[in-house]
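anyone seen this seq b4? input:
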Amino acid sequence: MYLRTQEEPRLGLGQPIQPLRTTFTSDVIVYKDKDGDDKCRLTKCSVYVPKLARYLQTVDLLVFFHGHDIDDCKRHRFDPELVIKNFRLDDQMDTAARPVALAVPSVFWNVSDSRNIRSAWSAAYMNAFVEEVLIQIGKASSSGGRPNLGRLILAGHSGAYDILTPLADQFDCGMSDTKKGAMAKLGAVVAMDTTYGLQHAKALEKWARNLPGRRFTLVLSGGGTPPYIWKLWDGMRKKATGFPVRPGNLDVQQMSKDGHCALPGKYLNYFI
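predicted toks r here
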């Protein structure tokens, strides 16, 4: 078991180790938007590596997909640095029970055709994107060495169902890209208020059944569409799937006192 200590990590000469922050533009995740100028949307990604993960040869990586840029939550304006700030994701990585590196890509939900986003974040492209992140960590590190990937964790909030649900379907279909690269090392999925339709609930549950040795967590707010849809799914599961209960590796946590926008900023580090 990994035990966190209060001692400040230090380099050989007594200099404290600092977390690593870097930002890059992906060469892999590019897609067209839906408006009249047919613009290509580039994916900017911010990476945060906490002190305890800085010089690990093998690092766990969390990829977090933010929700839509709406007034209900703090506006991120498709800036991954603002996503990290708004949800205190760097602070959460610092206090997580085990050292985990963080990658936050920008997703242009509001201006792009969701079908393009789904295609851009397929299992094949996800594998290539994770490789990009590891290379960028190596370039930004003083050691210059690309770390190996230990465990991949995928997390998404709200509209991120447009990435998580198609990925779940690809695993359900047994596509080859789900069995190699980063996808083969998928260790956990954290879905935060992503069940906006019964297909999202069904896909998440089937994903967990298909990967019984991996950890899946659905975090629900105190009210609104996602918890309502999950309750509906609970009532129709047996008829729809033949299973009377959800799989044991799918944990459902309802934060009854918290609203939709509070979930990523308060609970992400508990489930990674």
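The first strand starts at residue 20 and ends at 32. Helices lie at 80-86, 89-94, 114-120, 123-140, 161-172, 198-210, 225-241, 263-267. kinda curious what u guys think
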